[in-house]
Request: fold
Amino acid sequence: MVHPYSIGLDYGWADDALNEEGHNLLNRLANLLKIELSRRENLEMEHMETMPAISQGIGAGVSALRSYIQDLESWFADEGEQHARGLGRSALDVGLTRSGWKEAYAWMESVGLGRAFAEGAWMEKEEALDCDLPEFFNHPKKILGL
Reply:
């Protein structure tokens, strides 16, 4: 499962180094996504295991990380649940599998949107919610075959 925090780690550590600004940005991302400390530690340890033992980087990934976070901050708090409901409804419309549901729900739950996703999937309304999903939701869309 590709977690959005892991994407942030990839950006921040792009040259195998993280500077102070990158560290502060990762804190903002963790707070935005409401990641529990133990989950964050696990994601960071997984990422560290992929890095070389010696780094010559200077934290050059901070610019991409900043853009990623600013994009999320521009819509996540206000529109995240609406997008999650729309994704849930779209998944129901194309047909949900048990494994697809479990994996997509786990991903949505890991970013604090599990309940909204479930509400969308089980809405009694006939019409799907009309919204263009941000790239942030590409992983669950792929899981669900959308």
Remarks:
- The longest helix spans residues 62-94.
- Residues 40 and 54 are 23 Å apart (CA to CA).
- The mean pLDDT is 87.
